[in-house]
Each structure stands twice: as C-alpha cells, then as structure tokens.
Design goal:
InterPro entries: MeTrfase_RsmB-F_NOP2_cat (IPR049560), MeTrfase_RsmB-F_NOP2_dom (IPR001678), RCMT (IPR023267), SAM-dependent_MTases_sf (IPR029063)
Bound molecules: S-adenosylmethionine
Number of domains: 3
CATH architecture of the largest domain: 3-Layer(aba) Sandwich
Family: Belongs to the class I-like SAM-binding methyltransferase superfamily. RsmB/NOP family.
CATH topology of the largest domain: Rossmann fold
Structural class: alpha/beta
GO biological process, one term: methylation
Number of strands: 13
CATH class of the largest domain: Alpha Beta
Helix content: 25-40%
EC number: 2.1.1.-
Distance between the termini: 67 Å
Radius of gyration: 22 Å
Strand content: 15-25%
Keywords: Methyltransferase, RNA-binding, S-adenosyl-L-methionine, Transferase
Length: about 400
C-alpha cells in the first residue's frame, strides 16, 4: 500500500469506529481485525502503519469525530508527512481543502473532563490518561520462574515483568505454560489490597475471565477455596481453562443470574474471609488501552454503572464473615464510582469501617487509595478495603 492508501484505510476505519461508538457497535480492535480480514493485499507493515494512524487519531480527538477524515486531519496538522498523503492519488484521500472541518482535539468529552476535575484530577494529570500503556506480565509463583527474553522486573510488585511493547505474548513459551499472565502493574497492585492466606475462603464476585482470581490463587499458594462469580457467561467460561494452564485447582466458578445473585450464594453467607468486588465501571482509568471508550461513555451509561456497583456491593457484604475484608476496586478515576460509592456503602451498612490499604503505589483518596497514570505510571484505579463488623 502507498502511504496515501494507508491514510485512506485509516479514514475508512475511523468512520466505522466513530459510527460504532455512537451506536454501541463493535470495539475498535474488532473493527480493525475485520477490516484487514477482507483486505489480504495489506501486508503486516501496512496493517501496523494503518493501526498506528487510527489509534493516534483516536487519542487526538476528545469527542466522537464527525468523520474519519476530520479525525485524520488532526494528525495532518501536526505531521507534514501525514499531510502530504492527502494527495488525491488513485487510492489516497482528496487534497485538504482550505478551512476544512477538523475533529475537536482534546482529552475526553467536555462533560467527562469536568467530572474528572470534580474528582480532583488536575489538568496536568489528564494527558497521561490517553498515553500509551506498557505491556506488563504477572509471574505465576505456582510455577517455576520463567525465562522471558527482554523482560524487565517491575520492582513495586512481588512478581511482575515489563515487556517491550509489541511483544506477541501468546507465542511466548512462558505464557503457553501458564508461568505468566498479562496484567497491568496497577491491576497487580490493587489486588494486593485484599489480605489472603493459604487455606482461606475467598470470593471474587466480579471475576470476569479471572485476571485477579488467578493472582489471588497464587497468593493463597493454591490452598483453600476460591469462588469466582460473574454474570457474563462468555467471560467466566474463559476462567477455568486459564486456571488449568496456571496450575490452579482451588477455583470454583459460579455463573450468576443478574438480580438473583444472592440466591446462588446463600451457602457462603457470613463465611468468606475475604471478598473481592472488582466492579463493572466506566473504565476511565483504562483509556490508555481503550482510548475510544471515552467516546462511548454517556451520563446515562455512567448512572447505570453506579447503580450496578451499589448492587454488587450489597450482594457482597452479607457473604463476608465478621471481621473479614471486602475490597472494592474500580478502574475509574471518577469519585462517583470510587470514593463516593464507598461513602454511600458505609452510610447504608452500619458497623462496617474502611481501612486504608498500604500499597506500593497510589495515594489516599477519600476512604481508599487512588492510582493514576500520570503519578503512578499505571492504569487508573480506586481501591478501598472495608472491614465487616465483629
Ligand atoms: C472489571 S470487570 C472484572 C475484571 C476481572 N476481575 C479481572 O481482573 O480480569 C467487572 C465484571 O463484573 C461483571 N458483573 C457485572 N454485573 C455483575 C453482577 N451483578 N454480579 C457479578 N458480576 C457482575 C461483569 O460481567 C465483568 O466481568
């Protein structure tokens, strides 16, 4: 493909990604994969170059752009090499017209920037939200220490590695053997907020595909009972094969019926030593990985997530034994989902108290700790440890 044809491909893809963001369609990564599946003439260098252009444009445009071309013009304004590809050649985009409309440059939609400010995130800290994320691994301590070429240790976590970006992880022998899992350093850090010991009874209420479940199992030395729940069948179904690869045998999965979760968990009432609630959230802390997610969030969607978070907390609390810990995590920097949610929990659950976890990154924020990309170099998180009354 010529450079101009690559720009044209990026424009077409951005049109699809913007439509999908407006209409709740497929994620950008899925659309990029589908696009190239039907364009076999594009080689790996072409695909990489187009992907780079697409993601650079997504990072530049704070709001959903009116068109893919309007988004690409933001890059053309910064980079004469991109501007030169608007050359009107056979497979390239038409030349740039004087005064042509650009997408709005920014960190995020204005309402979200305002909410981040109200959540005490400074304007200086905001650009890091859409920077590029590094590629981190968690070493599975249940297996022999892996050899991973080019990896650097992550000193803040007990067993973390950073890989050169672009490494194809699923082809690494250590990954195939279950000796490492992909997990952002921040995610590894917030998981440490739940104190666990071998032999305990632990619940991971929103386990998804088990990123944090497997880390808990390793810290429990694969001894005890670990119940991993989720309402999403697809995600939860990926957990047990991962556990098997990781040599984890203490995990039981339980698919929950939304609205009827408590019925499926009566057997655990008042008996969990520890409870992890890694709640569904807006993901404002993970825009480094999914920058287009900020185009998709709406005030209505956020309000629904806040409701679900309160609901999962109300399901979790009665399962914890007296004096046991409930750790609440969101990968969001919005107080509405973080410290505000915990304030409401404490007001509604007399006798519960918050205890600030001592973590290797982040700073106290309300009743918990917050990690942010600018200060901590991790994804953004809020985490709180809540102790059940004795
Ligand atoms: C942030 S993700 C969990 C990520 C996972 N803990 C990890 O480390 O990979 C939140 C999860 O909560 C699940 N969820 C949503 N509503 C739920 C509910 N009512 N009960 C349990 N899980 C729920 C979602 O399906 C999603 O998988």
């Amino acid at each position: 493909m010529t450079p101009a044809a690559r720009t044209q491909a990026a424009i077409e893809l951005l049109d699809m990604i913007a439509d999908a963001a407006r209409e709740g369609g497929a994620a950008a990564d899925t659309l990029v994969a589908r696009y190239f599946a039907t364009r076999r003439y594009a080689g790996s260098k072409d695909r990489r170059a187009v992907r780079e252009l697409v993601y650079a444009a997504i990072r530049s445009a704070g709001e959903v752009p009116p068109s893919g071309r309007a988004a690409l013009l933001l890059l053309a304004d910064e980079d004469p090499a991109v501007a030169a590809t608007f050359d009107g050649s056979a497979h390239g985009p038409a030349p740039i017209a004087p005064g042509e409309k650009r997408a709005g440059r920014g960190i995020a939609p204005a309402w979200l920037v305002e909410m981040l400010r109200l959540s005490s995130l400074s304007d200086e800290a905001m650009p890091a939200l859409i920077s590029r994320a590094p590629l981190d691994l968690r070493i599975n301590t249940l297996k022999d220490a892996p050899e991973v070429e080019g990896a650097e240790p992550l000193p803040r976590v007990p067993a973390g590695l950073r890989l050169p970006s672009g490494t194809v992880v699923d082809q690494l022998p250590a990954f195939r053997d279950g000796a490492v899992e992909v997990q952002d350093e921040g995610s590894q850090i917030v998981g440490l907020a739940l104190p666990v010991e071998p032999g305990q009874r632990i619940v991971d209420l929103c386990a998804g595909a088990g990123g944090k479940t497997l880390a808990l199992a390793a810290r429990m030395a694969n001894e005890g009972a670990l119940l991993a729940c989720d309402t999403d069948r697809g995600r939860l179904s990926r957990l047990l094969p991962r556990a098997e690869r990781a040599g984890v045998s203490i995990v039981e999965t339980r698919l929950l019926d939304p609205g009827r979760e408590a019925e499926a968990l009566v057997g655990w009432r008042g008996s969990a030593d520890g409870m992890l609630v890694d709640a569904p959230c807006s993901g404002t802390g993970t825009w480094r990985r999914n920058p287009e997610a900020r185009w998709r969030l709406t005030p209505k969607r956020l309000a629904r997530l806040v409701e679900t978070q309160a609901h999962v907390l109300s399901i979790a609390a009665p399962l914890v034994r007296p004096g046991g810990s409930l750790v609440y995590i969101v990968c969001s920097l919005l107080d509405e989902e973080g410290t505000g949610q915990v304030d409401r929990f404490l007001a509604a659950h007399p006798g519960w108290r918050a205890e600030t976890p001592d973590l290797p990154a982040g700073r106290p924020h309300g009743h918990g700790v917050r990690l942010d990309p600018a200060t901590d170099g991790t994804d953004g998180f809020f985490v709180a440890r809540l102790i059940a009354p004795c």
